[in-house]
Design a protein that fits this description.
With 247 residues, the protein is of the alpha/beta class. It has helices at 16-19, 26-36, 55-60, 73-82, 117-130, 208-218, and strands at residues 45-49, 65-70, 87-90, 102-107, 131-139, 151-155, 162-171, 179-190, 193-204, 221-226, 238-243. It has a 7-stranded mixed β-sheet, sandwiched between helices. Strands 6-7-8-9 form a 4-stranded antiparallel β-sheet, with no helix packed on it. The structure holds S-adenosylmethionine (SAM). GO terms for molecular function: methyltransferase activity. Residues 46-135 form the Methyltransferase domain.
Length: 247
């Protein structure tokens, strides 16, 4: 992600649990847990890059010791509330270098914020750097070039004092480049007061072969794995794994 953060990750970050509640992640987190244990070594310590509000981590932390890295201080603050027992680190997945290694690296939908092949390759280098030999990296883009189709979706949740509904409109202004756009409209309720806010997210879109080629170029044994729980609106339902070979 280059330029200013989307408002969702910045001044609106406290609304994240009302846009996408932690309970919604149960089934997919179980799929990620199983996939991560496909490493060639036992998986105990997991680094999550772009951990956001920590909704996957709320489920994965029962099985793994999680270290959570995100670029947005306001999202880290949300995650700390949910996951006080996890270590949180402010960092950029394109360049962060921690002085330790992990059994697995997990990059969920945050990897969709990489807009160029160069950025994607930098994330793969970060994952490689932090993995022990035999460790596994798992990347879960929202879409690939082959499976993306424009869509609109909506959702949101209510709590007693606050509620939110959103409209998400994904479109691809220039199919020749490696980006698509998500226009967001949020209706935010505080007590009986309502306001509407607009936001925009720039997302990366790469052919399946690019994912596999860049992972291989980094040295990973790369694979595409069908996503067990993705809905058709969530694209082709494929995630990518990279095994760091045992030396
Ligand atoms: C959709 S949220 C992730 C939500 C997360 N899957 C969860 O379980 O709550 C995307 C996150 O990616 C983070 N992000 C975007 N670019 C990043 C980068 N270069 N390095 C680290 N985090 C980044 C954003 O700050 C945001 O918190």
């Amino acid at each position: 992600m280059s330029g200013p953060l989307p408002r969702l990750y910045d001044d609106l970050a406290s609304w994240w649990p009302l846009l996408s509640s932690p309970e919604e992640y149960v089934a997919e987190a179980e799929f990620y847990r199983r996939t991560l244990t496909g490493a060639a070594i036992p998986v105990r310590e997991v680094l999550e890059l772009g951990s956001g509000g920590g909704h996957n981590a709320t489920h994965l932390k029962a099985s793994f010791e999680m270290v959570l890295v995100d670029l947005a201080p306001a999202m880290l603050k949300q995650s700390r509330l949910l996951n006080p027992e996890c270590e949180h680190i402010h960092g950029d997945m394109r360049e962060v270098r921690l002085p330790r290694r992990f059994d697995a690296v997990f990059v969920h939908d945050a990897v969709s914020h990489m807009l160029s092949e160069e950025e994607l390759a930098r994330v793969f280098a970060t994952a490689w750097h932090h993995l022990r030999p035999g460790g596994l990296a798992l990347f879960c883009p929202d879409h690939t070039r082959e499976t993306f189709a424009p869509y609109a979706a909506h959702g949101g949740h209510d709590r007693r004092l606050r509620g939110m509904r959103y409209l998400e409109w994904a479109h691809d202004p220039d199919p020749a480049d490696t980006e698509y756009r998500v226009e967001m409209a949020y209706i935010l309720r505080e007590g009986e007061e309502y306001r509407v806010v607009q936001d925009r997210l720039a997302m990366g879109l790469f052919p399946r072969a690019t994912w596999l080629d860049l992972l291989s170029a980094q040295g990973f044994a790369a694979a595409a794995v069908p996503h067990a729980t993705a809905s058709p609106a969530e694209g082709g339902g494929e995630v990518f794994t990279g095994l760091r070979p045992v030396e």
